[in-house]
Amino acid sequence: MSFFDLVDFDDHEQVVFCSDKETGLKAIIAVHNTALGPAAGGCRFWDYANDEAALTDVLRLSRGMTYKNAMAGLKLGGGKAVIIGDPKTLKSPELFKAFGKAVNNIAGRYYTAEDVNITTSDMATVNQVTDYVAGLDGKSGNPAPFTALGTFLGIKAAVKFKLGKDDLTGVKVAVQGLGSVGYDLCKKLHAAGAELVVTDINPMALEKAAAEFNATVVGLDDIYSQDVDVYSPCALGASINDGTISQLKASIIAGCANNQLAEARHDQILKDKSILYVPDYVINAGGIINVALEIYPEPYCEKQATKLVERIYDTLMNVFEKAKAEDKPTGIVADEIARAIIAKGRN
Ligand code: NAD
């Protein structure tokens, strides 16, 4: 296998393989691009089928962070880390300290944070041996409300662009997933006069949404075919696929979930069907924006974080307008804008 010929290798600046026999640590840290600043992105703990799958994941995720941070207007590059193995059996304070040492060895080119299967308390252990950690308890706090704010503003931008409406009164939104972000988003949508249709695997969350937001509850598979204006994926990745696109009646897709399109080609398919797809990594950047301000030399400031999150509205309007003018899918246009920002940073 030639590493540099891998499909997911995208001129990553640095890829570090870390191991520590005593604690069982096997990790990969990928620094994709630091043109705009030190790389930042979470660390994921996952029992990958094999090491190649872990490498593929970290290469893709770190590249995604470069684009996300650039589009969010942050002075940060993109990076990501994966710890390989079953978190249930492998997690220990010593393992996280060994990981922290590996992060420290990169000397500030990469800032880590929690991601799938890693808690803020795990990151506090990492923080015992390195300062290059963000998203710690007692600092910027829970990112979900900031992600919800950005997603709410992204929906407003899409409704304005696609439906010509300045407000959300009477706009019908189908929300898939009422977790940390989805619930907060529903609260904002309800307060703005939107009509909600919701689904979740958690019956308690559904009862709450019905009682508090007068939301209509539907089955898991019925969420796609609802007669609504906006479909808002806030649970899983890849919910936009060949099987679901054909069911959609919504003319807008705008939600906080990561990696919403099952395959890149679905961007073009949505455009062909006149469905406005709001690129996931642009609309859901509120959380990373909040965390990022912990990394900046200036002290964390909630007001500044909120101001930066509010820019998501204009950033998305720019994407929609450019996509329309150039007759291109929105995902492709977002990537082009991100690449231009990164190139400018490099120069
Ligand atoms: P969460 O785990 O708090 O919520 C997910 C919700 O989805 C839960 O209520 C869960 O019961 C529900 N769910 C799971 N499977 C489902 C299914 N098949 N159908 C319907 N509902 C289902 O997660 P979250 O923090 O709210 O994040 C939601 C999504 O947004 C994830 O994709 C996450 O990666 C992404 N995201 C979150 C943040 C953040 O700040 N938390 C930032 C960026 C992106």
- CATH architectural category of the largest domain: 3-Layer(aba) Sandwich
Bound molecules: nicotinamide-adenine-dinucleotide
CATH class category name of the largest domain: Alpha Beta
- Number of continuous helical runs: 14
Protein name: Leucine dehydrogenase
InterPro entries: Aminoacid_DH-like_N_sf, Glu/Leu/Phe/Val/Trp_DH, Glu/Leu/Phe/Val/Trp_DH_C, Glu/Leu/Phe/Val/Trp_DH_dimer, Glu/Leu/Phe/Val_DH_AS, Glu/Phe/Leu/Val/Trp_DH_bac/arc, NAD(P)-bd_dom_sf
Keywords: NAD, Oxidoreductase
Domain Glutamate/phenylalanine/leucine/valine/L-tryptophan dehydrogenase C-terminal: 141-347
Report on this model:
The longest helix has 21 residues, at 51-71. Strand 1 (14-20) and strand 2 (25-33) form a beta hairpin. Helices cover 44% and strands 15% of the residues. Strands 1, 2, 3, 4, 5 and 6 form a six-stranded mixed sheet that branches. Strands 9-8-7-10-11-12 form a six-stranded parallel sheet, sandwiched between helices. The two termini are 33 Å apart. The chain is an alpha/beta fold and 347 residues long. It folds into two domains: 3-126, 3-Layer(aba) Sandwich (Rossmann fold), CATH 3.40.50.10860; 144-284 and 314-335, NAD(P)-binding Rossmann-like Domain (Rossmann fold). It has helices at 51-71, 87-90, 93-105, 120-126, 144-163, 180-191, 203-213, 242-245, 266-272, 280-283, 286-295, 302-310, 312-326, 330-346; strands at residues 14-20, 25-33, 39-40, 43-46, 77-84, 110-111, 172-176, 195-199, 216-217, 230-233, 252-253, 276-277. Nicotinamide-adenine-dinucleotide binds at residues 143-144, 147, 176-182, 199-202, 205, 220, 234-236, 256-258, 284, 287. Residues 141-347 form the Glutamate/phenylalanine/leucine/valine/L-tryptophan dehydrogenase C-terminal domain. Keywords: NAD, Oxidoreductase. It comes from Thalassotalea profundi.
